[in-house]
Amino acid sequence: TPALYIVATPIGNLGDLTMRARDILASADLVACEDTRVTGKLLSAFGLKRPLIAYNDHNADKVRPTLLDAVRQGKAVALVSDAGTPLISDPGYKLVRDAAEAGLAVTAAPGPSALLAALVLAGLPTDRFLFAGFLPPKSGARRTALGELASVPATLVFYESGPRLAASLADMAAVLGDRPGAVARELTKLFEEVRRDPLSALAAHYAEAGPPKGEIVIVVGAPAEQEASADTLDAALRRALAGNST
Ligand code: SAM
């Protein structure tokens, strides 16, 4: 059926491609992807060969109308990323926005995302979380960005690269305080590793061990809940009692 399909692909383990994702890719008239070589390899691993078109930060504004026209003309267009779920620190939101605005059908084939895989392995509360994507590469801008997140009462999730990991963790410990954290690496792959420790210990570990290989997600616990002081409690109690007696 003609539509724009947002299709999640594996973040390492090919077994994670869903059956529905495979079916959609197998019958897509056009597969829009970040890098045609990366997606070409993925398709051939499943014995598929489909017309590919690059859709990335360099050409998105030019290619977007082409993709929308294809759907308008009755084609099934699939959008994939190099890995994981499109639009999550990856291109695609403007394509979805414009397709929806044009009244075209848009549907998702959900599946792997490093964000959720790391969150569920971190051992931190999952009822409220904020995904903050990649932090700025330079420490000054990174600390400013972290400052904006410091009071958010939720678990925080960041994408990061090996070379910047130790410095980012040190900035987190400095700006957010020494909260519990987790570093998830190479998820779903052979050398999957999750290290759970306070931010300062994680920072010290990676400063000492050197930059780890592979892809990384950092998960950080929410700020400790402010304990109500005895004075605050007393005042609240007096207010409540006063309210009841009148
Ligand atoms: N859209 C993707 C998703 O849904 O996970 C994320 C794309 S983003 C450009 C790539 C980043 O995701 C990496 O730098 C890393 O932080 C994280 N990532 C991707 N695959 C990973 C894996 N197997 N293990 C840990 N982190 C991963």
From TrEMBL:
Residue ranges annotated for the Tetrapyrrole methylase domain, each copy included: 4-202
Localization terms from the record: Cytoplasm
Catalyzed chemical reaction(s): cytidine(1402) in 16S rRNA + S-adenosyl-L-methionine = 2'-O-methylcytidine(1402) in 16S rRNA + S-adenosyl-L-homocysteine + H(+)
A molecular function GO annotation: rRNA (cytosine-2'-O-)-methyltransferase activity
EC number(s) stated in the UniProt entry for this protein: 2.1.1.198
Purpose of the protein: Catalyzes the 2'-O-methylation of the ribose of cytidine 1402 (C1402) in 16S rRNA.
Family: Belongs to the methyltransferase superfamily. RsmI family.
The protein, known as: Ribosomal RNA small subunit methyltransferase I
